[in-house]
Every structure is written in C-alpha cells, then in structure tokens.
Amino acid sequence: MSGGHASSLAPGQRHNGDADPRRRFVGARVTRLEDPPLVRGQGTYVGNLGFPNQLHMRVVRSPVAHGVLRSIDTSAAREHPGCRGVWTGQDVADIPPITFRPTSVQGLEPYRQYILARDRVRYIGEPVAVVFAADPYVAEDIADLVTMDIEALPVLLSADAPPGEFAPGHSTEAGVLRKQFGDVDAAFREAHEVVEVDVRVGRHSGVPMEPRGALARHDHSRDVIELYGAGKRPHAHRDAVAALLGRSPVGMHFYEGHIGGGFGVRGEIYPEDVLVCLAALRLGRPVKWIEDRRENLLACNHSREQHHVVRAALDRDARILAIDAKLWHDQGAYIRTHGARVPDMAMGTLIGGYHVPAYRAVGHIRLTNKTPAATYRSPGRFESTYACERLMDAVAERFGLSPIEVRRRNLIRRDQYPYPRPMEILDHPVELDSGDFPRLLDRTLEHLRWDDLQAEIARRRDAGECVGVGMGFFMEKSGLGPVDGAKVNVDTRGKVQVVTGSSSIGQGVETVMAQICADALGVDYADVKVIHGRTDMIDYGIGAHASRATVMTGGATRMAALNVRRKALEFAAAHMIEAPIEVLDIVDGKVVRTDRPGEPGIPLGRVAAALAPSPEVVAFGIPGLTAEGWFETAGLTHPYGIHTAVVKVDPDTGGVTVERFHVAYDIGCAINPMLVEGQIVGGVAQGLGGALLEEFVYDERGEPLSVTFADYLMPTAREMPPVEVLLTEDAPSPNNALGMKGAGEAGITGVGAAIAAAIDDAIGKPGAIRELPVTPQRLRAILAGRPAGA
Amino acid sequence: MKPAPFQWHPASSLDEAVALLARYAPEDGRVIAGGQSLVPSMALRVALPAHLIDINGIASLARLEVEAGRLSIGACVRHAAFEHPVEPGVLGRLLATVAANIAHAPIRTRGTFCGSLANADPASEWCLVAATLGATLVAVSARGTREVAAADWFHGIMTTALAEDELLAEARLPLLATDARAGFHEFSRRAGDYALAMSLCTFRVVEGRMREARVGVGGVEPQPRRIPEAERLLEGERPEPETFARAARAAADAVDPLEDIRTRAAYRRDLVAASVRRSLQAACDDTH
C-alpha cells in the first residue's frame, strides 16, 4: 500500500474557518478507537439488548408475488396460549404509508408501502400480519398459524416489459426522469461515428453480517418512545417515524448501538421499524424484532437492477460529442424511502470524469413484483460507471485504439476544474470541484508497472492461459451537504467529548472525528470520545450515508473544536495566565506559552473547571469549556478513481478467478489512510460479489430463489484477490478547509466495469460482457456461442 | 429461522437407537448425527421432525478401521476424519482429496460420512465416492441388519433404500489396488459450495494400458453413478489427454442432467466434460 501525503493543500487558505494549528493526527494511520468493545464481545448490537417484560414480534409475509388480499385468518394464531397479539392491515389502518425523502420528482406518492399490506400484496415477503409473543420461538410458531386467502394476479418481473397496473389508475411506471444539456441531436447528426451498448446490471444488494433489528419501548414516565437499533439517519428517521405515528419528535428518540454493516440498506425506515414502535406504544411492553437471514434476503432493500442503452456520438479522433442514455430501473414492488435517488444518481453520474459537451438521459422507474429496491453502496454509480465504461471500451474497439488512449482523449483536464455540468443530481447543481484524472492514470500505470504486466499477460497467453486485464474509471460524489453541526466539550479531567449527529456503521467515524478534533483543539486523539446516533444528545444530524460523514461531520467537528480552542485560550488569557492570547497555544492538552517554552502549561481540565458556572464566568460568556460548530459546504466533493482487474478465465467451465485488483483513488485528503484502505478493500469485495456472484434470482411466479447464503453467493476470503491501493491527494477539495473528499464508496464503484473489461480481454472478445453478474454459466454460453441462459 | 418444537432422544447404544427409531419413526422421528443438512432444514421449517434420535453418544458408531480389505466407516465418523489419509494406500489419499472439497471446515468437523449417504443429496461428494467405488451400506433396525450395495442404495434425489425404521450404521469401502490411480475434480461457484458437477475416476495402468477404469459423475443427475460409455473408451487404451477428452465427451453425452432456472442442462454437460477430463488427468498424475 502506498500513498504519500504530499498534499498541495495550504492549510488556512480556504473559507470556512481558522487555520488548523498543526497536523499530528490528521493523515496518520492511527488505530481505531471503537475496536476494544468489538473485539471483546462487548458490542451493543440490537440483538444483545433487551428490556424486562419484552415481547418479540414476528412478521407474517406474503407467499404470493401479486394478488388481491381477500382475507386473513388469525383465529388459530389467537388461540395459541403464547399469543400476545396479532395485527393485520386493518389494525394499523390509521398509519399512513412510509414516506420518502424530499424530492422534486413528482407523482411517486401512490407507490408508497403501508406497514402491513391492505387490499393487495405485491411481492413475496411483503409484511401482511405481525404476531407478538414473549419468546421468539413461540412467535414463529404462532406466525405459522396465520393463513391468508390471496387471489393471484399476473406477476410483472421485468422493468423492460410493458408496464402493468400497480393499482387502479396507476401504471407500474412510477415516473420518467429526464436530464439534458447541450444539443444532443445535432451532435449525433454531425458525428463521425456512433457507438452504442446495451448492458445490464443484476439485482443484488448490501447484505450486512448483522441482519436488521429493532427494539422499542415506551417510557411511560417521560412519555417517550425509544427505538434501539437505529442507524444511517437517526434524526431524519426519528422525525419521519414520529410523523407516521402522529407524535411529536420530542416524544421519540432513536439510539444507535453497534451496527454490523450498513451499506445503504441498514437503517432505512422499513415497515418493521414502525411496527415495533407502534406495538410498544399500544401493547405497553417493550417489543423486539430481529430478522432472520431468510427475511433479510427477502425483505431488506434490494438494489442495482438496471438496464442501460447508451450511445455516444464521436468525432473522427474518438472524442465524445454527446452521450444519449436510456435506462430502465427495476424498483421492485414499492417506492421506498430513497424515492427516485438511485436512477437519478445513475443518470447524473453516468458521464463520469469525461468531457461531454452534450448529454441526455431518460430513466424509467418501473415497479415489479419483487422486493422493493433502494440504495446500496455507490447507488446508481456502480451501475452507471459500468454502462459508461462498457461504452468507452466499445469506442476503443470501434476506433482501433487502446482503452487507455480513448480515456486520455476524453478525460477532463486538470485546468478545466471546477467543471460545471448544467444539470442537477438529487436537486443539487453539478460542479466537479477538483481533479486531475490524467495524472491519476499516469500514476496508476506506473504503480501497476503496466508494460511488465502486459508482457506477463502476453507470455501467459502464449502458454495457453486465458488471462486479461481491464480498467474501470469512475467519478464519485461525496460530502452531500449543505450543513452539519457538532458540539465539543472538555470535562474537568481534560477528556474531550464530541457530540455529532452522525452515524457509525463500522466505517471508523469515531476515530476520524477524534483525529480531526484532536488536531484542531490540540489534544491526543485517544482522549476524544465521539458520540453518534443519539437523537437525545443533539438536535440535528445527517447520519452516515453517501460518503458524507468525514466531509460534513468532520467539517463541523473541526469548527466546534476550533471554537472550544478559542474559548479556552481567551478565558486562560483573561483569567488564568497573565499573557496576551497571541502567545498562547494548546499542546498535548495543555495551554502553554509559546514565548516561554519549558514552562509548565495549564491542563485543559483546569480550564474547564474554572469555567464552571459562576458570576465571573457568566460575565465572560457561556459556562463550560464547550462550543458548537457548524460547517457549510460550498458544494459536493468529487473524488475519483481507477480500478484495474487482472482475471483468469477457465474456458471449459466459465469460471473466473480474479488474480489481482488495483484501486487508485484520489481522496483529496485522507484523515486516516489505513481506514480509507480498509473501506476500499471492503468495497472491492462487495463489488466483486455484484460483478461475479451475487444475484437475487426469481422464478416465473415471482418466487425468490436466493433466500439463504447457499443460494445468494457472497464472496468469501477464498474468492478475494489481493487488493492493492494507491491513495493519492493530488486534488484536494476547495469546498472544505482540509481538502477532504469521501471514502465510503471508492472500492466498489468501478468493479463491475473493470471485471467486465478484464474478462473481455481474457477471452479476446471485445464487448462480450453485457450483463452482470458474469456467472460461469453466462460466460460459458458466450464462449460456446450459445444464447444467454442456455 | 427457528425450528418448530421437537423432542430430543439421546441414545447410548445402537440397540437403544433402533428401538427409539422403531417407536418414533412413524411419528415424524428422524436420526440426527452431525445435523449439517437436517438442522438448517429445521431452521427453515422445511423439515419438521417431531422427534430427533441423537446417535452422537454411541461410541461404537465412531469406528473407522480397515478390516478384510475394506474400510469400515461408522455412522458418527466426521468428514474431518478423512482430511488426513485414514489408511496408507490409494483410497486414503483419495478420500483426503475429496474431503477437502466438502463444504467448510466447521461443517467438516460435525457432518458425517454416513449422514451424507443417508441424506443422498445429488451433490454429495461421499455419495459419488460410494457409487463409484462400490460401497456396501449396513442398515440396522429392530428387525435386524442388512447390507445394501451402493448400486441399489440411491433411489433419486435425497431418497435411498433405507427404510423409515432403519439406521445407516456403517459404510464399507473396498480398498483400492496398490497400483490403482485415482482422481477427483469438482466445479462449484465458490470454494466449499455444492458442486455443479464432479467426477471421480480410478484405473490401473498395466503395461502402459488402462485397466479396470471407473468413471463416476455426481452433482449432475438425481444420483451419482458410473458412466459405462466413458469407461469403455478407456479400457485398454493408453492414458493420454486425447483419450481422456474422448471419454469426457462421452460422459457429457451420456448424462441426463438436472435442470433448473439457474443451471441449464447444456451447461451441466459442459461441466461434466471438464470434470471427467480433469479427474482422469488427475488420476493419470496420481503416481505417488
């Protein structure tokens, strides 16, 4: 692993705050503060939690993919001696359907999901009833006693098929998204060449090791509903669930413990989250729900299934004049909390890091009788990068150029940044903040020893091996704002607490925030405790998703820490040290005089103690060594990268072995390169799953066939190649003081593209790979000249 | 994924086990040893046994020994027992190769050889071993003991000759000749997954020619079996890649593959060809 930190960033030359005093922890490979309880079995996963007298909830799910729900027979369930309650849709008829995030996309409301099905069921696994019992085994026994009469309707399983009827008056095409700039039609009329690809990404998703879970109780003494097991967006979802229950947000708090993987799917609002809160309120007992793996694969958000037809108009030098993209997004049975974000982002990011003068994208959001879909790590971008890079490879083939040469001719140059694109992503204007893609390409080729690699591949091919190399270039988006806040306080023993509205889904938020705070304040990062995922400790929070926590919450933490620093120095200068503030500094947790080195400083704990409420302190300002900080970003940040895969194909079986995987990524400023590399390696594993293994398969009746880990194939350690990471900081973001960009999705975005290109190269058939995942059967069919699926 | 209620009956002797089985088999009673197929099925509530007769405590069923030219494998012998050769000859070496392909280490420490044969999953490696090498299966019930040849054992997908009240107490494998060569190959999506196709081959080479060739294929049809069309093409021929390829194609043509929405027949035939060819080559190279 390499990656220098010779950042060109000059601290303090940007807006949004003071200069950082020094860099000691930012940029350092310090170990994670959050690990001790995890490695000692002291985690607070929701499965580990419980309250006295709690009930367990079990969900009864539809066994039919599409049908009219005629009746539900709960009588046998009610007669079971362990039954403490059975609800169907009629029992929760007062609860409105689950809302989605604000969007300018119109017309999605009719497609929302009720927490229990009403007149129709629309996918196998849809919650139809819930039962409650004191024992989870008994709850499952009782759930088996609930029967239902469903009159089957025709199932729709393809987003390509003509739309059907979702409900009377509503087509299964929930909406059509459009984005455009430049004169696309003119560009195609004048084009020297037009190249088109027709490619698909299969249905797969984030599958956390820990399945979903929720534990709710109603604290009668305070009239507060508490939900344990929250994640991702605790504040926003607290507000949303409170609204669904008709409660004031102050009467409801969300608590996030440890989470065994987020990946976009964990922490969204699902029917089950609302049901446990409602049950705690109505039944007057704590209610716990933990899904099993079958439910997890059946009912947690799916993702990715998208069909793209993308055309490029090119001049005689293979330079892009325009790109025209159409996509069909398989949304599954309902519109979930993300609304239209996945196809929106796919369309908004499809043209990646290329200079594209004119662009048009049309996205069809189609509902099918499959599990509802939503965001999964690198939502929309894994899909669109794959489509765009398949197109670029096809352009290279058409012009007889190397894939690298085609990229060189079309990548945005460093001097073109900031690079605006006259369109919006998620209702935000697009301006690529900074970048130097050609330089990253040079560094990648150098790091890979490209000529040696090519020679080695040629030698092995001569020896009869089927090996190849492929690349995927991607432009990410991160740091979605616009504003986040944090609170920092120092206690009388000098320990620092950072209260954030962020979430920790395992990515290292606590360590990274501690590093940023430590440098801004002048303390050791190990003395900083970071709070996240608690709506009762801070009023606002953006959670953790879309690679935003480091940029946004990190920005806010830095501002708050700088404010505490200023407060400590001002108070010390005024009341504790007879010295002008200009000669004071905070080093290793002590206020020191820079003009008298060697003189013992004053520990911050003493400053905090002196700031206890008193008439003098109130005259000075707000008591306590504490401050808030707010960070406003000037815009999205856009990290970018190149994935390179070396694969070996077994032509007899269609099996693919990934021998080597290389990720080059420009992150602007890595707060902790070790954690960034960890994020990247994990992302690569998931990307390889989506490219080669993972697929939710349905039969013709809409029966899901991938409901255990024997059928839904996650990559294991045995399938993982060594991953090399080249982390660079050549293009710091001008949108925040440290130049940070996001890290969460860098490992996954380009995997599908790189693997497809590498397999093409190995089998010597450019453009052969048009569908992910590349299963051995699909690849063998290509090699044998059989139609796909035969 | 929590099993439905059931009653657990630990047995401390074979007599007690078959007595319990005679009593509870008619009431959805099942034998449990390693439980590596049964317990997941119960968790999914696909299997709903009312009674489990646990044979793990029966010391005599842990027997694993060579006698009279045969390897006797008791009902409680785990897959992991075969990871190192259980006898110094060709068979011990072959079983170690096969064992390494069975699922994952935790499963191998618990699952049993005889349990695999009683479960008769088409993709079971041990079932292919039994079918190809001609195992003898010893079924015990309160009514008595009988021996069943492997050729008569398999009755289709997860069905065997074992009666409801019978316990598969032991499997016996004939040792392989000292000059025999054996090869095994399977293809699965990931390391440890169920095989989409596999092949086990043995032959002797006498004066440069293959003799007593056996070609077994598993994971492809409802049950594993030998493929005489392939064996015929080997008998008396030199062990050469072209011959192996011919036999492999013959095997691919001879099988009638299972087909489902994920795995098409044409693809399974391709895998049979690859597996047979590779297992033959592995046997050819098996000259320790």
Describe what this molecule looks like in 3D:
The complex is a heterodimer of chains A (790) and B (288). Chain A has 790 residues and is of the alpha+beta class. Chain A has three domains: 46-153 and 214-290, Alpha-Beta Complex (Aldehyde Oxidoreductase, domain 3); 306-479 and 636-784, Aldehyde Oxidoreductase, domain 4 (2-Layer Sandwich), CATH 3.30.365; 480-632, Aldehyde Oxidoreductase, domain 4, CATH 3.30.365.10. In chain A, the strands form eight sheets. In chain A, strands 3-5-1-14-11-12-13 form a seven-stranded mixed sheet, sandwiched between helices. In chain A, helix 8 links the parallel strand 16 and strand 17. Chain A is globular and about 85 Å long. Chain B has three domains: 7-54, Uridine Diphospho-n-acetylenolpyruvylglucosamine Reductase, domain 2 (2-Layer Sandwich), CATH 3.30.43.10; 59-174, Uridine Diphospho-n-acetylenolpyruvylglucosamine Reductase, domain 3; 180-284, CO dehydrogenase flavoprotein, C-terminal domain (Enolase-like, domain 1, 2-Layer Sandwich), CATH 3.30.390. Chain B is built from ten helices and twelve strands. Chain B has helices at residues 14-24, 38-43, 90-99, 105-108, 113-119, 125-133, 150-153, 228-234, 241-254, 265-284, and strands at 7-10, 29-32, 51-54, 64-67, 70-74, 136-141, 144-149, 167-174, 180-187, 197-206, 209-218, 225-226. In chain B, strands 4-5-8-6-7 form a five-stranded antiparallel sheet. Chain B has a four-stranded antiparallel sheet with strand order 9-10-11-12, sandwiched between helices. Chain B has a three-stranded parallel sheet with strand order 1-3-2, with helices on one face. In chain B, a hairpin with a 2-residue loop joins strand 6 (136-141) and strand 7. In chain B, helix 5 packs across helix 6, helix 8 (228-234) runs antiparallel to helix 9 (241-254) and helix 9 (241-254) packs antiparallel against helix 10. The longest helix of chain B has 20 residues, at 265-284. At the A-B interface, helix 3 and helix 19 of A face helix 10 of B.
